[in-house]
Amino acid sequence: MSTNSAPGGRAGPTAADVVSGVDPDRHADTPPLTVTLLGTGTSTGVPVLGCDCAVCTSDDPHDARTRCACYVRAGEMGLLIDTGPDFRQQALREGIGRIDAVCYTHHHFDHVVGLDDLRPFFFDNPAPMPCYMHPDTAAVLRHNYDYIFGADPYPGAANVRLETIDGPFTVPSRYDDKGTLPVDPVLLRHGDMPVYGYRMGRFAYLTDVSRIPEPSYEALDDIDVLVLDALRPEPHRTHFSFDEAVDVARRIGARQTYFVHMTHNVRHTEANAALPEGIQLAYDGLTVEVPAVEAV
Length: 296
Prior knowledge:
Distance between the termini: 35 Å
CATH topology: Metallo-beta-lactamase, Chain A
Radius of gyration: 18 Å
Mean pLDDT: 94
């Protein structure tokens, strides 16, 4: 396997490695998906602590943004993307009662630190919960959460299992219904950091990205709903600006694209009105229905 360099001398898969196993037929039996965007804000959340700008003091609920996370319902199965610091609040707000697996995009604080809040999902179902991720993400989580992933786990710790991935995989049910869900990782660049986006059926979730390697576009054909990082109108070193995100959205060609990870520089009503047709700003709690592959 070819590799790219990674922090601490580790090595990970290249974009070509990850996409090499992609087969559109894998998704032929994927049922309709119900996608809920649990959070749509940048790492500080919005409002930002101590800020009295027009967005942070706005009374428009669309301007209140918790940290990015996503919940996908596929039949009876529930798949979570990231566990940020607001995960507990988000799960209570949306009434989430089932999680079969977690897909982690990367190891930054605003995407992983709610991991311990998965514990209640084991109170009535002790079956292990797989957590899929890039090898770099696994190395950081293993180090930072020794009480979960170390040689002597703390009693009562969440029964989560690190699963490093370098190509398409299938999520199994943790329950008696025996469902499965095919998922394709999509290698992205968040500045210099390799991170994963994820595709399920005709839905793709790409947060914290400033560049999509050319081979990764192959995994994004025939997308119906795309969730895409768009930090603010101005350029940024590790995130797409609005203009960059619009260009990427047009190239991928989803029927509908939703921008996430916005800062407090973005007032929802004004910014949303300026976006092209088929592209909108997301907001916390937005729920979108994605049709089954076979139904399109």
